[in-house]
Amino acid sequence: MLLATVRPTCNTTVSCAFHCFKMTSPYFVESTSVITRGGNKTVPHTGLATTLKTRMERRVLRAHVKQEEEDSSVSNQSLGRDASDIGSSRFHRSSIGQSKAEPDKARSLLPLAPILRRRRGQVKVEYDGKVEPKHWEPPDWSKQLGHVRQMRSARDAPVDLMGAETCYDRHAPAEVRRYQVLVSLMLSSQTRDQVTSAALQRLRAHGCTVDNIVNTDDDTLGQLIYPVGFWRTKVKYLKQMSVMLQREFRGDIPNTVEGLVRLPGVGPKMAHLAMDIAWHQVSGIGVDTHVHRISNRLGWTRGGTKNPEETRKALEDWLPRDLWSEINWLLVGFGQQVCLPVNPLCSVCLNQHSCPSAHQASPAKRPKAGSPRSPHSKTSRVKLEPGLGLPPPSSATPVKEEPLATTLSPPLLPRKRKSKAKTFST
């Protein structure tokens, strides 16, 4: 009997791999399962990893929920304040029982745990050290200003006795007083207060009003204001300014800085001082040569300034507005008595220990071109010999000392003898 062994086409175990459907729960991931011929089902390592991942997430969830309960017991007020966003503490306690039955709702609490931890309290951080001010301020400026006030307490400087605040006629009408203040400020440019006060007194005796100045000829007006600096130019500006006030402003000066600057011969310094003295309005700081010089010496300008207009902007950037009115007469009188343009009296100044420019030699003025002291002049190259061209002083006659002249006259030099031309005989 022949036994025929029927061999199947595949005598080995044939397995088929099928992809499982994706689960809707976030705890499951895409995995594969293997089904053998005997119907046994094996779980690969991917399913085990999914199970471990689910257990770890549940442990993390329980830890967060436990931390929530501790936080809610310590800070009930802070959690009650956020009840509209994350619910009350009763909702979080009930979510513990629902975490096993409804994992989706329990998992939704995971993003809230870091928020609760951040809102538990705010830590106030304090830094050691000096906090910089909002705007730049020079060091010790308040102390220096107090010293200047102490040195100016007598108010006996020329600006206090003969300045623009004292030169006008106090019994005249208001518009005439304001006009005289502006005239005094125009004459004070590049002029000492003593000369300005004397010139304004002569103008007041002549009649210092808008109509009278317009009707006065230039020669008479020049004789009245002489010897103020640039008196010819100031005569022209006075006539043009008076005509403009008569036509456009009805004989009164403008009450704005923009209107004052439009007048001939009126700059920003005069405009701000006129607003302060005539209209009693503080519109800015009046900076003249004294204020410009002292501000740079004390270090009140950041990096230094080159002209009074830059100094005005630098001071207004940090100086309190309630000090703008007095800073002009304080520094002007201080510059006239102590902080002189040349050879300042630093030994008697109360700011000598805090002033950056204290006890420094003043720069020498450069002589004008063409003057005997100019380095390019021919006379400056000649060395003066003592007693040149003068008889020697005798012991019997006393020598009379005379003050030095302001300008050097060219020295007397001996004349050179003319050489005779030589003739050659043939």
UniProtKB/TrEMBL annotation:
Residues 64-104, 357-426 are annotated as: Disordered. SUPFAM superfamilies: DNA-glycosylase (SSF48150). It catalyses: 2'-deoxyribonucleotide-(2'-deoxyribose 5'-phosphate)-2'-deoxyribonucleotide-DNA = a 3'-end 2'-deoxyribonucleotide-(2,3-dehydro-2,3-deoxyribose 5'-phosphate)-DNA + a 5'-end 5'-phospho-2'-deoxyribonucleoside-DNA + H(+). Keywords: 4Fe-4S, DNA damage, DNA repair, Glycosidase, Hydrolase, Iron, Iron-sulfur, Lyase, Metal-binding, Mitochondrion, Nucleus, Transit peptide. Residues 414-426 have a biased composition (Basic residues). GO terms for molecular function: 4 iron, 4 sulfur cluster binding; class I DNA-(apurinic or apyrimidinic site) endonuclease activity; DNA binding; metal ion binding; oxidized pyrimidine nucleobase lesion DNA N-glycosylase activity. The keyword Transcription does not apply. Pfam families: HHH (PF00633), HhH-GPD (PF00730). It is found in: Nucleus; Mitochondrion. Gene3D superfamilies: Helix-hairpin-Helix base-excision DNA repair enzymes (C-terminal), Hypothetical protein, domain 2. Residues 187-337 form the HhH-GPD domain. Its cofactor is [4Fe-4S] cluster. Its EC number is 3.2.2.-, 4.2.99.18. One of its GO terms (biological process) is nucleotide-excision repair. InterPro entries: DNA_glycosylase, Endonuclease3_FeS-loop_motif, Endouclease-III_FeS-bd_BS, HhH-GPD_domain, HhH_base_excis_C, HhH_motif, NTH1. GO terms for cellular component: mitochondrion; nucleus. The keyword Amino-acid biosynthesis does not apply. Belongs to the Nth/MutY family. Bifunctional DNA N-glycosylase with associated apurinic/apyrimidinic (AP) lyase function that catalyzes the first step in base excision repair (BER), the primary repair pathway for the repair of oxidative DNA damage. The DNA N-glycosylase activity releases the damaged DNA base from DNA by cleaving the N-glycosidic bond, leaving an AP site. The AP lyase activity cleaves the phosphodiester bond 3' to the AP site by a beta-elimination. Primarily recognizes and repairs oxidative base damage of pyrimidines. PANTHER family: ENDONUCLEASE III-LIKE PROTEIN 1. This is Endonuclease III-like protein 1. It comes from Salvelinus namaycush.
